[in-house]
């Protein structure tokens, strides 16, 4: 992926931190999901007093896109930190990896973990979810 696009995804993910709703953990996460259509779907984490109803930033982005008819994706960028201060890489939780497995090719879908535009790591979904169970298992 071109550096310009990586920069755009990192900027978009960081700009989502201000919308993150985290009265319980104060751990703010932003995500920017790139569709194969070239559009970017942004998401933040949205917590809930019933804790388990919390939605991660990654799933917010996926569900926004899927709810608009978009089901093919190239990459997602994730940023996160306590109080929205970015010092370490934030990797997607297991539930979010499983949602990615539903819509993304594990060999090619890129997961970009970023702290800023100079500090980021890129993984494939297969690297973060080896032996994943997905739609093809039900063929
Ligand atoms: N969280 C995300 O939004 N994405 C991740 O990749 C890890 C965790 C959120 C959920 C919860 O609001 C907070 O971070 C602390 O777990």
C-alpha termini separation: 31 Å
Bound molecules: tetrahydrodeoxyuridine
Unreliable stretches: none
Order of helices and strands: HEEHEHEEH
User: What is the number of beta strands?
Assistant: 5
Number of helices: 4
Q: Taking Cα atoms only, what radius of gyration do you get, to the nearest Å? A: 14 Å
Shape: globular
Structural class determined from secondary elements = alpha+beta
Biggest sheet: strand arrangement = 2-1-3-4-5
Quick one: biggest sheet? 5 strands, mixed
Portion of residues within helices: 25-40%
- The share of residues in extended strands comes to 25-35%
Query: For the residues shown, what is the average pLDDT?
Result: 98
Structural notes for this entry:
- By secondary structure, the protein is of the alpha+beta class.
- 27% of the residues lie in helices and 27% in strands.
- The chain has helices at residues 3-15, 57-66, 94-103, 125-128, and strands at residues 27-35, 40-44, 73-82, 110-116, 119-124.
- The longest helix is centred in the first third of the chain and has 13 residues, at 3-15.
- The chain starts with a helix and ends in an 11-residue tail after the last helix.
- Residues 22, 25, 27, 29, 45, 47, 54, 56-58, 78, 80, 90, 92-93, 96 line the site of tetrahydrodeoxyuridine.
Offer a few descriptive terms.
single chain, alpha+beta, five-stranded mixed β-sheet, 139 residues, binds tetrahydrodeoxyuridine
């Amino acid at each position: 992926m071109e550096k310009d696009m990586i920069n755009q995804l990192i900027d978009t993910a960081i700009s989502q931190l201000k919308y993150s709703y985290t009265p319980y953990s104060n751990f703010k996460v932003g995500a920017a999901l790139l569709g194969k259509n070239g559009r970017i779907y942004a998401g933040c984490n949205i917590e809930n007093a019933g804790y388990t109803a919390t939605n991660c930033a990654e799933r917010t982005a996926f569900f926004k896109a899927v709810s608009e008819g978009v089901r093919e994706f190239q990459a997602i960028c994730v940023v996160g930190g306590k109080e929205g201060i970015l010092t370490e890489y934030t990797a997607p939780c297991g539930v979010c990896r499983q949602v990615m497995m539903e819509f993304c090719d594990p060999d090619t879908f890129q997961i970009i973990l970023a702290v800023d535009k100079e500090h980021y790591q890129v993984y494939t979904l297969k690297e973060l979810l080896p032996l994943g169970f997905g739609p093809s298992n039900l063929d």
